[in-house]
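Exam revision sheet. Question 4 asks you to relate a sequence to its structure. Input first:
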Amino acid sequence: MKKLFSLCHLLGLLCLVQGCAVYSTATDERLLDTMGSDSAIATLIKTNLMNEKLAEGWSISVYCYYGHVFLVGECPKSLRPKAIEIAKRDKRVRSVTPHWFSRKKGDSDFVLATKLRTALITTGKINSTRIDTEVNANRVVLLGVADSQDERKRAVQAAREVTGVATVTSYLMLPMKPNKNPNPTGITYAGLKPPKPED
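Answer key, structure tokens:
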């Protein structure tokens, strides 16, 4: 019981760390110890990136699901190999998937992120607490664990239908099964109501 309390307390503290994925324990498909390990991995990598000054002036978010790490954000090409190397240092890491954004001008990321989160919450049969989102200049990235292929498709479709979304890249994973732990892949879709090009 004491161990469970300590783990829950740690997860609560991790919610304060920007760019690290932490889920509601009541709705996540992963076991509590897996969630704790994933959160610890993401926090350690974020800390190491900051210690190496790779996070200074750049926006790199770190997510981890089943030991699979995702680095999402802006980072100069010259620093990207170093960021990946830092993420691979932890022996618990099974894979590292980078998703680097090139710098572009776009609509307000905050406004679009709010519209995106609202769409995921209001779309039926999607547990939005399991889905993390990143928005950069009208480009959306979905990460997390969906409980089925159908839920994953609904989440992608909901994101594509948000006005102003140019592209949606999905790294949504399905619950892992014993002896099956494939490396995640990203699929990019065009937004259905993209921003109008500037005159």
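Marking note for examiners. The two ends are 62 Å apart (CA to CA).
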